[in-house]
TrEMBL record:
<feature type="transmembrane region" description="Helical">
    <location>
        <begin position="167"/>
        <end position="188"/>
    </location>
</feature>
<feature type="transmembrane region" description="Helical">
    <location>
        <begin position="373"/>
        <end position="392"/>
    </location>
</feature>
<dbReference type="InterPro" id="IPR006707">
    <property type="entry name" value="T7SS_EccD"/>
</dbReference>
<dbReference type="Pfam" id="PF19053">
    <property type="entry name" value="EccD"/>
</dbReference>
<feature type="transmembrane region" description="Helical">
    <location>
        <begin position="289"/>
        <end position="309"/>
    </location>
</feature>
<comment type="similarity">
    <text>Belongs to the EccD/Snm4 family.</text>
</comment>
<keyword id="KW-1133">Transmembrane helix</keyword>
<feature type="transmembrane region" description="Helical">
    <location>
        <begin position="315"/>
        <end position="334"/>
    </location>
</feature>
<keyword id="KW-0472">Membrane</keyword>
<dbReference type="Pfam" id="PF08817">
    <property type="entry name" value="YukD"/>
</dbReference>
<keyword id="KW-0812">Transmembrane</keyword>
<keyword id="KW-1003">Cell membrane</keyword>
<feature type="transmembrane region" description="Helical">
    <location>
        <begin position="221"/>
        <end position="242"/>
    </location>
</feature>
<feature type="transmembrane region" description="Helical">
    <location>
        <begin position="113"/>
        <end position="134"/>
    </location>
</feature>
<dbReference type="InterPro" id="IPR024962">
    <property type="entry name" value="YukD-like"/>
</dbReference>
<feature type="transmembrane region" description="Helical">
    <location>
        <begin position="194"/>
        <end position="214"/>
    </location>
</feature>
<dbReference type="InterPro" id="IPR044049">
    <property type="entry name" value="EccD_transm"/>
</dbReference>
Length: 433
């Protein structure tokens, strides 16, 4: 069967030699089956390199399809075929590879978990260091606290520059602040805790500002800590000077915090020195604003909780504390809608919810007979909070109503603070009329 054979010339051009061989090949066999035999015939001396991919092609045309025969590739008698090599393709992952699928589906441990554990353990250590104990030398505690604060501060500056991980900087900065505050609290040798709180908050503020200058990360966290510390420090200074009660001090913290919360945008712009020509400072300004909002919200929540604790402990005056903390919670929750940043919204909402929890707990403790009312109110407010998930359409009239309620709540904070702080009783005792 002469048509079953195809007589042609196969030329092989390599770096070492140029060969041409006349062959008679079966025309109905696939090219892939013929190539190994053609390579053996052309390179009988075994000079071909192993591991190469050999292909046949016509002169000036792409390689032939190996699954097709010579007839299918339109090869005729007398044609000249070129035998060349191609580099093997690099290995690639296949989407259906089981190993690849399992490796891609594995869950990685959250990076925040070790940082949170480190901060919590550091906070426990700082609290244990500052815990009052009779008959224990304070000098050794002060030295230990100062050494730990300095070591953590040096680590917050040096380690992130070597590792390039901002999370390490934030974690060590918080450890530095905690032990600096504990050391400041121990330094005051008085029987009252307010003086120690004053020096501790002042130390925390100074250390936080210093870390803001020397570190490259954690601006939001350090700004929040500095804001909280300066508000507590101002209140503690007033408490030391005028011997304020816990309820009066808490009311003062709330007043200062809400006032700061209203001026946070201007304060952020002033602290960062942002102008219309300094666009690169926009990110720093947003971080500073977030820190100011978070610190002010936390201070307001702590002050309101201090008020309600003091009022509950004083029999017969729980109504003032629960009313005051309810007003503060309402103000904080209504301020959430004025911010678009998720962190700022979460800070305000978290502080407001914390105030509500403390208020419901105080109401249940002070008035056990009406605990069912507090329970119903708590569930109702929790159901109302689901509106943030549903995102219902709100009419302009409803929005205007919310704005009016916010203004009334803000205006009610000062009279309520004077009530729980004892200003009205003090003025009544002066017999001005």
């Amino acid at each position: 069967m002469p048509d079953s054979l195809c007589r042609l010339t196969v030329a092989s051009c390599t770096d070492d030699a140029h060969r041409a061989v006349d062959l008679a090949l079966p025309a109905d066999v696939s090219v892939g089956e013929l190539v190994p035999q053609i390579v053996d015939l052309v390179h009988r001396d075994g000079t071909q390199e192993p591991g190469l991919d050999w292909v046949l092609s016509k002169l000036g045309e792409p390689p032939m399809t190996e699954s097709e025969s010579l007839n299918d590739n339109d090869v005729r008698d007398g044609d000249l075929l070129i035998l060349t090599t191609t580099e093997p393709a690099p290995a690639e992952w296949s989407p259906c590879d089981p190993c690849h699928a399992v490796a891609a589906d594995r869950t990685t441990a959250p990076r925040m978990l070790p940082a949170i554990a480190c901060v919590l353990l550091g906070g426990c250590g700082a609290a244990a260091l500052a815990w009052p104990a009779a008959g224990v030398a304070m000098s050794s505690r002060i030295v230990v606290g100062a050494c730990l604060a300095v070591a953590a501060g040096v680590g917050a500056v040096v380690i992130p520059r070597l590792r390039g991980d901002p999370l390490i900087c934030v974690t060590l900065s918080m450890i530095t602040v905690l032990y600096a505050g504990a050391t400041g609290f121990l330094t005051v040798r008085t029987s009252t805790a307010v003086a120690g709180l004053l020096l501790a908050s002042a130390t925390i503020f100074a250390v936080a500002i210093l870390l803001l200058r020397v570190t490259t990360s954690g601006r939001t966290c350090l700004t929040a800590i500095a804001t909280l510390a300066v508000l507590v420090s101002a209140t503690a200074a007033a408490a030391v000077s005028w011997r304020l009660q816990l309820s009066a001090g808490g009311a003062m913290v709330v007043g200062l915090s809400l006032a700061t919360l209203g001026f946070t945008p201007r304060l952020a712009m002033a602290f960062t020195g942002i102008t219309p020509d300094t666009a690169p400072n926009v990110r720093r300004c947003h971080q500073t604003l977030t820190g100011l909002v978070a610190g002010s919200s936390a201070a307001a929540a702590l002050g309101a909780i201090a008020v309600v604790v003091a009022e509950v402990c004083d029999a017969g005056s729980a109504l003032r504390g629960t009313s005051f903390i309810a007003i503060v919670a309402l103000v904080l929750l209504l301020r959430v809608r004025t911010h678009v940043d998720a962190t700022r919204r979460a800070s305000l909402a978290g502080a407001g919810v914390l105030c509500l929890l403390a208020g419901f707990a105080a109401a249940a403790v002070a008035a056990p007979a009406h605990a069912h009312v507090a329970s119903v109110l708590a569930v109702s407010m929790g159901a109302a909070a689901l509106g943030g998930i549903v995102r219902p359409t709100v009419s302009p009239i409803a929005l205007r109503t919310v704005e009016v309620i916010e203004c009334v709540a803000i205006a009610a904070v000062i009279p309520m603070a004077c009530w729980v702080g004892g200003i009205y009783g003090w003025a009544r005792g002066m017999n001005l009329i």
